[in-house]
Amino acid sequence: MTVYVLLVLVMIFCWLGALGMWRMREPMQALHYLSLPACGGTIALTAAVFFQTGNSQAGWKTLLICLVLLGINSVVTHASAQAFRSRALGHWQPRPGDPVEFVHEKSQQ
Fold first, then answer.
1. What are the pLDDT tens digits along the chain (109 aa)?
2. Is residue 101 a part of any domain in this protein?
3. Contact at 8 Å (CB) between 2 and 51?
4. DSSP-assigned letter for residue 34
5. Of 69, 54, 58, which Cα lies nearest the Cα of 3?
6. Staple 37 to which of 14, 67, 104, 105, CB 3.0 to 4.6 Å?
7. Residue 62 and residue 27: Cα distance in Å, rounded?
8. How buried is 2 (Cβ within 10 angstroms: 0-12 exposed, 13-18 middle, 19+ buried)?
9. Angle separating helix axes 42-53 and 2-23, nearest 10 degrees
10. How many domains does the chain have?
11. Is residue 95 part of a domain?
């Protein structure tokens, strides 16, 4: 029963991620929804495999894949955002006049 609950949780994470990406207007906003299936889904799937198979080779391989996905998720998201920015502006480094919000530090008094 626990395995089925975890697999339903994986499915919910994947659907929420896909629906969130679909509903966002801009690609930069949609990137935030990649973390739902990449983080929550893989953790729940790894737990389901361990509950189903116990301490087995399949469980440890799934854990290794989960750790790799958790590790590269932020790198891939950052690289995708940089590619979107580079395509839209022609460069990726911030320049004066770019449509970017900057948080200015308080002036020291």
1. 899 999 999 999 999 999 998 998 888 888 888 888 888 999 999 999 999 998 999 999 999 999 999 999 889 888 888 888 888 777 777 777 766 655 455 555 4
2. no
3. yes
4. G
5. 54
6. 14
7. 30
8. exposed
9. 160
10. 1
11. no
Question: By the 8 A CB rule, do 10 and 41 touch?
Answer: yes
Strands (E), 1-109: none
**Of 41, 56, 60, 44, nearest in space to 6 by CA:** 44
Sequence length of the chain is 109
**Residue 24 near residue 36, CB atoms below 8 Å:** no
Q: Which domain holds residue 47?
A: 2-89
Matching residue, tokens 């894949």 = 65
Neighbours of 58 (CB within 10 A): 12
